[in-house]
Model the fold of this input.
Amino acid sequence: MTDGDNPGGDPRSAVPVRRPRPAQENWRGIAVDPDADRSRAEDTDPAAVARLRARSRALLRNLLHPHRRQLAVAVALLLIQNVAGMAGPYLVMLGIDRAIPPLQAGDAGPLTYIAAAFVVATVAEYAARRGFLVRSARIGQAVLLDLRRRVYRHFLRLSVTFHERYTSGRMVSRLTSDLDSIGELVGGGIDSLVLAALSILSVAAILLWLDLPLAAVTLLAFPFLFWLSRWFARTSAVAYRWTRDTIALVIVHTVESLRGIRAVQAFRREPRNQRIFTRVNDDYRRASLHAFQLIATYSPGVKLIGNVTIAAVLCYGGWRVLNGHAEVGVLAAFLLYLRRFFEPMQELSQFYNSLQSATAALEKLAGVLDERPEVPEPARPVPLPAVGRGAVTFHSVSFGYYPQSPILRGLDLDIPAGQTVALIGPTGAGKSTIAKLLARFHDPNTGAVSLGGVDLRDVADADLRQALVLVTQETHLFGGTVAENIRFGRPDADDDAVAAAAKAIGADEFITALPDGYATQVHRRGSRLSAGQRQLVAFARVFLADPAVLILDEATSSLDVPTERAVQRALATILRDRTALVIAHRLSTVEIADRVVVLESGRIVEDGPPARLVHSDGRYAALHRQWLDSLS
Amino acid sequence: MPAEVDGYPGPTTGRHPLDSLWRLRHYLRPYAPEFAWLFLAGLAAVAAGIAVPLVAQRVVDGPVARQDPAGLFRLAGLALLFGLAEAVLIFIRRWVQSSSSLGIETAIRADIYAHLQRLPASFHDRWQSGQLLSRITTDLSAIRRFLSFGLLFLALNLVTYTVVVALLIRLHPMLGLVVAVSAIPLFLVARRFAQAYHAASRRMQDQQGDLATLVEETAQGLRTAKAYGRGPELAARFAVSSRALHDTAVGKGRLLADTSARLDLVPNLTLGIVLVAGAGAAAAGTLTIGELVAFVSLQLLLIWPVQGLGWIIAGGQEAATAADRIREVLDTPPAILDAPDAAAPPRAQLRGRLRFSGVSFRYPDAREPVLRDVDLTIEPGETVALVGATGSGKSTLLSLVPRLHDVTGGHITIDGYDVRHLQLATLRRLVGVAFEEPTLFSMSVWENVTLGRPDAGDEEVWAALTLAQATFAYDLPWGLATRVGEQGLSLSGGQRQRLALARTVLSRPALLLLDDPLSALDVHTEALVETALRRALPDTTTLVVVHRPATIALADRVALLEAGRITALGRHADLLATVPAYRALLAAEPGPPAGDPTPNGLVRS
Done:
């Protein structure tokens, strides 16, 4: 917004320009970040597309690498199966040609040998097929498992900024739907690829050996096949990429409407949601339809080329036989082998289709894996000092989520270890931003934030999280029991420690009143617990985690006054020798602070102990008066 | 992560495994002509495919042997014709298949979504959203795949099998019967496979749902996980779940491998028997060698349909269990519906007199009620503050008015109408709620604010935003067209609350329910919002949950909720003077830094 630096102006002047048409086209709004819908690696220009393809191939190679021995075994089994399978018809012919005449003469020997060979071939085929299928399922699933875990871990490593623009629905889509479509490729098809390639090669060799001119006619089909396949590869890559994008939107919309179902129902949003869903659902249908129609064209196209070739060979071959240039037997064999030649092509086209679909998904995942964490782990982490690890320094820190709107400008703040600092100021002054920078959800654009004298960028994540915890008003409870949620603060804590933490914070009473006490399942995002109760669980969690530095960002907003006071008492005990940064709108929370920092538009305007600031004639004094007035 | 078993209504046992799939048949009905056509096209394509080699055989036996170039070209032309026909028929089949199967998938998905929106909050509390999500994605694709390929090839293969066996019996009754009898072991193998695979595929789909739930939850709790540095633990938990899924998938693969190898074995062994018996018959002179060759080549045609059987059954079972899972959702009746004789009084008739009489409420699977015997009347235009300790049931009480839950005892009336006898749309238009947690969707600010009134004009939106002190929205990079991030996370807590409040105000409710709507606002902004609210909504009946004494200034009367009962009702000053529990809850003196000892031995662990 161009006039954003003029907040005093009548906002109505902006209305006509900025007004979005309430048309369905605009319901999603305009994302501030142009890369909102994808990972950065996914771009639309051809070079980026090619780069991503190359990366997804490299990823695939990398995933398959540990299994190369098993793959070799699988291919060997496949070859055995194939040879054994081929032997069947050959033995039948042998039986007819060689066994019947002796049998007529009363000699059952040859037939017995052939029958025995037949049984051996059949059993070998059975064993090899079974072995191959088991092995390929194992390899495929192992690759899938590896990929799934890699992507999940990477998502956890990526910064909050990334997740804010990528949205959770899209993350869900990557880890479910995209992996499913790779799983479909893994589920079946590898054998058709190998077998098809094998029989095409061997049959081509036989054809060339049988009759060169006829083989040349057959090979004429190849340029057409190549051209058709290239067309399919190009169009289907685009088409499947489109299906991946559209299914992600279906998932995003579903996840959000389910999550906000109370708001949806209370505001009668259902019809409009249904219209939007119908649209994203239909977009996905059209995207899939397009992809399916491509394969619906490609597959019969391959068939067509094969059938035309057979007719051509029939005609030309027959003519050659008529003119005495070839034997009848050669023509017959040629026609039989030609069938074996084009039949696998069909399966190959099927496989190619699954491959294209899986590749589109793999590209999306490669794009995510390619995303570098904006808040990277240090290559050579510096350990935090054993003493004084609670000292926090902001040194001329500037930061903005978007370059055009900086929030902090050259902020300097020095908090000695053990001090409790209350950060106050109007909404949008940058209080939460300071909290997030200190928790290293983001790195400053310029300047440095340091803990115990060490720049946060040089602290290993595990060290940092052990030393420092941020509690916000959004308290998330994970699926599992109440006890497990408290234990999230310190995974190795025993049940007594968990209960003691809850007791200290004043959460014990309501937890023991729950149906199963500490073993109560919190279910979906803890919807059974009230917001206040969830904040209590979060506090028990942080009590258990016992960090050297504690950041509380509006962490008590949903508590009633006595409960808040109980929490504060417990905190005061913790905070006595901890460093704490407390952000609260209720000045009651501020009372426990050693020092108050008043922030306005990203700058510190007042700084001092609350007792002194109250008596000065500044902003804190005014706020304090206002607060006292509000209480009476 | 154990699956939440309590979420699945109704047992799926005891019914035929294909029952659920069969019950989805009405989705197929609009496409019945297409399915008939594509089946015919499929059949014709198979016939054309068989005709080509037959023609080729004719060429060798006929024109080539007779030295007849004209005949050669005629037959080659015929082969070309059949070849073209086959390709065109396959094209038609696949083309029609794509649109019909996708049409069915899309229709089912839209219906599930619509049903999910109708199901009450209690359902969504119980069901993990990942499980619901996997139903509309993974499970539906399984059904679509079966409809587009499995079903057709099952039919085509059965036809092929029957025709070929009939031909074989005609060719040589004895040997033909041998082949026909080989169908018995095939059937047994297939049936056993189907049963085992059914269980495995259900387990796998449930595990996929669990995994989706886990992923969704991780996405939700990402900040918490980061704040505590619990990435490794979450990754370990994910590793366990994904390993379970992997094991199930490998087990499924093994089942399929076993069966498909066995299915392959049967026709091969039959071929061996035919070879031996046929050779004997030929030696005995009851069968010519030519007939034996023809017999064997025909029999080879059976291999593919039998080999494909394993995959078709697998796909069928996956579709069947997917259909089970989908029916579990579709069969859950929406508990909160319009009553048959629901009233829709015009807005002008209503003044907004809200009355709770003897209201009690218990969550479906809880033992203890949350609310008991709540009596409270709020006169039109009056503002009542609801005060109570954390977890006393304030938010629950509010959620009963727009029927997000239904009371389990007593009733709630608005101007004498029981809320259960009002049309849901009317009721929810009358009642505006601002929740404790402001839910913003990843949509434009405009769309978020006009959630309850899509037809609102620019002026009204502006007025609502001004009232809620949310005009900052105009200064966002794209103004009101700016997409606010997921759940509005790129906005601060206070900003989100103000947008949610603007949304509530914009819907011009007769009854305003505010659940601690200003908790994240600073005192100054809160005062501005309060003044504006009082000015703008003089006639609106308001029930507001508050924690802070300051907000109570907004209220005419205060109700104290203690352990699900209203224990005191009156003016703030009176209650403060007469009710100790109320005083304890709202006494204004700031908490002194702790004087009393708190257990802290734990902290130093």
